[in-house]
Amino acid sequence: MKKLILLSTILFAQLSYSAPAASPVDQGLNFYKQKNYRQAALLFYKVAYSSPASDKSKLAAKYYLGLTLNKMKLHQVASFPLVSAAQGNNLSVSTKSFEQIVKASDALDDKSLLYYSLKKTKVEDLAEIGKELFYNRLADMYLDDNNPDRAMAELAKVLALNPENEEALYLKGLSFIKKNDPSSAIVNYEKLYKRYQDKPATSVKKAEATMALARSHYNSKHWADAISLYREIPKDNDLYRQAQAELTWSLFRAAQFRSALSVVQSLNTPYYENFYNPEALVLRSLILLFICQVEDLEKSIQLFQKNYLSTLNVLNVWNGSNYSAIEHFKEVEQTLSQLKKIQDGNLPVFKGRLPFFVLRSILEEPDIKLKVSYLNKIKLEKRSLYVQFQGNPNFLKFGTKIIDARIKNISTEIGEMIKSQLQEKEVELSEFASQFEFINYEMLNLKKEQAKKKAIASSDAPVETNQVNKNDKREFYIQNGYQYYPFQGEFWRDEIGNYQYVGVNRCE
Amino acid sequence: MYQYLGQDMKQTIILFIIGCLSFNVLAQQAESTASEDQDIDVVEHLLEKDIKYDFKYKPTKKSILKTPQKADYKGIQSESSYADFAIIQRNFMPKSERFSVSLGGSLLPTDVYYRSFGLNLKLGYHFTETWGVELFNYSLSSSARSEVNDLENKQAVSVKNLVSLKSFYGANVYFTSIYGKTSVFNSKIVPFEIYQTLGVGKIVNQKGEESSAVQLGLGEIFSLGRSSGLRTDLTWAFYKTNNIQGQSQASNSLFLSVSYSLFFPEPIYR
């Protein structure tokens, strides 16, 4: 009898395990409606991957699993069952799954997932996410594919729905730039620029709109307009350094050499020593050549040789060694950790095999920045997964597998992108090196001419070193609300952007 | 039927059933793992298939030099060209056309036997960065130092302060002669200004007697923010007043003050 009871108990337990509960998807949905997302997710996961349910139920369970995980902000883990559900035969589930995938990819800034889902979705099927978001992302995708005409067609649809959509206006301007039509881009960006006039100076969008308009004016050769717009970018904005570099070029093209030299002086200070910027040194040298300032020109050439020729050599050897993508990624990790130290106010310790300032500048490239941000997001998501699903080893294993696979592939992708960028940097730096050879040749010629003139001139004649403001007293600046400090070889942080070149043209 | 089976047979049947059911569970788990792996592989393949890597680069090997980690801009300029550059920057804490109010403590440090201290309040208006005017008021109290008590108790020598001040108020002309900036622990830049004041006022002694005074001042203001600063000044007042014996006596007092200043309205530029 006891054995009979034991046998019945075992049989009943196994039957309970094997046979699915009455509509577990409905049970999961009940948990979902009660906002008990964890329990809902576990139930859906069980139906989708563990229990012998029908394909239709599994498909639905995968969709609901993705939906629930999206709610729990586990977007990466959500995306995999959603993609699986989207590939199923059920059109309704597919459409809804794609909608959720768009949401997840938008939260993660993952373009590959986004573009995959955009290609498969029809805008008429969208319910939850806005059509404007859909068309904007589609336009973004076409712009990445260098197809501005198709991008503009999608943006026209956004602006038909909402003429004030800021992102669409921005992308439209970008499309005009890609079509080499800067005049139309100016008209477009001016709308955005005017809209942001009331925003505070610290507004990021305001700065971006100002930069976009300034660049459009630069492309149209409206130097004065570009100059005044670049000057509006405040010092505490991330775009300030880039704005100063482009301002220097605008001033140079407008033949305002004194002003150009004033601006480029800020870029060649120890404040920006961790940024790779040989172009600023080239521009500085060209202007010094124009004004026959031989001594400083010689210093600039020496500095280029010291900082950048050795960098060129390192890049050449590194690129020639054909390191794997993962080796490149390890260097990126080193750079990111040192960058964090600098941002926390600590002294960095450079242990990487590649120059820190080169990698740091490469990491600012928009595509790479987005990928790194995505990688950081999924690493955070992994931690969140452990916290939210402690005590559920099966689900943890499932989620961790997804995230680990993504981390591995994204790391490889980033490594490959860095590899490509390093090769481009090497080519670019070689070209700058050739330009410096030319500048060096011209400098030597100039030096020879100046030596001849000096030899011919009277030896008793005093050497004049004039400044344009030699007759101005300090009171002149103070009364106008300014402070004047002579430059004595020291670089102070608060002086960035306030250097003024007051020397004269030495060619006369 | 079960009860007619032998003991061994029954145990074998039970074990067989348990084994089948366990195998069923394990098979389901394996199937779920395989299904998960398949899903993961399919999705990864979808996401990675559009990525193309196109390298047309052909490197040439060279021997490696020391890896520079940052750009070294020291020596970018020759000393002879320093004069070609100047720094012209907006005043961090502008004073032009702004009011100021300062509140702090004051001490008369020159009295050997008596400790005189109190509060000071100053209200000013600055016409330009250089010139301004202000009204001031010092409220003071005196107390004997321990040396006075010792003299009285041990030496039977009585000490009285000739002149004890109660308050000093008046108006100043404010002149900024020097501006500069200093670095604090290599992490923060603090702009400062050195100013001089010249003014007239009234001295009131402990008996309530008033007399006119002229004062000279020297001070420094360190900018803590765009509208606030820490002010230290030394004011030397010259006056005639009646002493404890009722005689008119020329006197002078040195006021050492530390105060916190606020400027308003907000500066017009960022």
Sheet with the most strands, sense and barrel status of chain B:
8 strands, antiparallel, barrel
What count of helical segments of chain A does DSSP give? 22
Query: Shape of chain A, please?
Result: elongated
Question: What's the oligomerization state?
Answer: heterodimer
Give the termini distance of chain A in whole angstroms: 119 Å
> Secondary-structure element sequence of chain A?
HHHHHHHHHHHHHHHHHHHHHHEE
**Helix/strand/pairing category of chain A:** mainly alpha
- Binned strand content of chain B: over 45%
Mean pLDDT of chain B: 82
Number of strands of chain B: 9
Short description:
The complex is a heterodimer of chains A (508) and B (270). Chain A is mostly helical and 508 residues long.
Describe this entry's structure for a reader.
The complex is a heterodimer of chains A (508) and B (270). Chain A has 508 residues and is mostly helical. Chain A has a domain at 272-454. Helices cover 71% and strands 2% of the residues of chain A. The longest helix of chain A is centred in the C-terminal third of the chain and has 64 residues, at 393-456. Chain A starts with a helix and ends in a 7-residue tail after the last strand. Chain B is elongated. Chain B is 19% helix and 47% strand. In chain B, a hairpin with a 4-residue loop joins strand 3 (114-126) and strand 4. The model of chain B has no long low-confidence stretch (mean pLDDT 82). Chain B has an 8-stranded antiparallel barrel. Chain B has 270 residues and is of the alpha+beta class. The longest helix of chain B is centred in the first third of the chain and has 42 residues, at 7-48. Chain B has 2 domains: 2-47; 98-264, Porin (Beta Barrel), CATH 2.40.160. Chains A and B meet through helix 1, helix 5, helix 7, helix 17 and helix 21 of A and helix 1, strand 1 and strand 5 of B.
